[in-house]
Amino acid sequence: MPSPYCALLRTKTAYYRTPDGERIFKPGDSTACYSCLKTQRPVGPDGLPVDADSCGADRGCFEQE
Fold first, then answer.
1. Rounded distance, CA 65 to CA 16, Å?
2. How far apart are CA 5 and CA 44, in angstroms?
3. % of the chain with per-residue pLDDT over 90
Protein backbone atom coordinates (compact mmCIF):
# COMPACT_ATOMS: atom_id res chain seq x y z
CA MET A 1 0.00 0.00 0.00
CA PRO A 2 1.49 3.40 -0.98
CA SER A 3 2.17 5.98 1.70
CA PRO A 4 -0.62 8.56 2.05
CA TYR A 5 2.02 11.21 2.82
CA CYS A 6 4.12 13.22 0.42
CA ALA A 7 7.70 12.01 0.04
CA LEU A 8 8.86 15.60 0.69
CA LEU A 9 7.08 15.95 4.06
CA ARG A 10 9.34 15.83 7.10
CA THR A 11 9.11 16.16 10.86
CA LYS A 12 11.38 15.03 13.67
CA THR A 13 10.07 11.45 13.59
CA ALA A 14 9.78 11.15 9.79
CA TYR A 15 13.42 10.12 9.51
CA TYR A 16 12.67 6.89 11.35
CA ARG A 17 10.88 3.91 9.83
CA THR A 18 8.74 1.07 11.10
CA PRO A 19 10.00 -2.51 10.66
CA ASP A 20 7.87 -2.55 7.47
CA GLY A 21 9.79 0.44 6.09
CA GLU A 22 7.08 3.08 6.50
CA ARG A 23 7.99 6.55 7.74
CA ILE A 24 6.56 7.36 11.16
CA PHE A 25 4.03 10.19 11.32
CA LYS A 26 1.84 10.99 14.31
CA PRO A 27 -0.72 13.51 13.01
CA GLY A 28 -2.10 14.11 16.51
CA ASP A 29 1.31 14.98 18.01
CA SER A 30 1.09 18.56 19.26
CA THR A 31 4.89 18.98 19.24
CA ALA A 32 5.40 18.03 15.58
CA CYS A 33 6.97 20.75 13.44
CA TYR A 34 6.56 19.91 9.75
CA SER A 35 8.63 21.12 6.83
CA CYS A 36 8.91 20.44 3.10
CA LEU A 37 12.17 19.12 1.67
CA LYS A 38 11.64 21.08 -1.54
CA THR A 39 11.16 24.49 0.13
CA GLN A 40 12.97 23.79 3.43
CA ARG A 41 10.14 25.70 5.11
CA PRO A 42 6.80 24.98 6.82
CA VAL A 43 5.02 25.79 3.54
CA GLY A 44 5.03 23.76 0.35
CA PRO A 45 5.82 24.90 -3.20
CA ASP A 46 2.13 25.75 -3.59
CA GLY A 47 2.33 28.27 -0.71
CA LEU A 48 0.13 26.25 1.64
CA PRO A 49 1.16 25.01 5.11
CA VAL A 50 2.58 21.50 5.34
CA ASP A 51 1.49 18.88 7.87
CA ALA A 52 0.43 15.25 8.03
CA ASP A 53 -3.25 16.10 7.51
CA SER A 54 -2.86 18.29 4.42
CA CYS A 55 0.10 16.90 2.44
CA GLY A 56 -1.74 14.28 0.46
CA ALA A 57 -2.32 13.31 -3.16
CA ASP A 58 -4.87 16.14 -3.62
CA ARG A 59 -2.08 18.75 -3.64
CA GLY A 60 -0.36 19.62 -6.90
CA CYS A 61 3.11 19.42 -5.37
CA PHE A 62 2.54 15.90 -3.94
CA GLU A 63 5.26 13.34 -4.69
CA GLN A 64 4.55 9.67 -4.08
CA GLU A 65 7.17 7.89 -1.99
1. 14
2. 13
3. 45
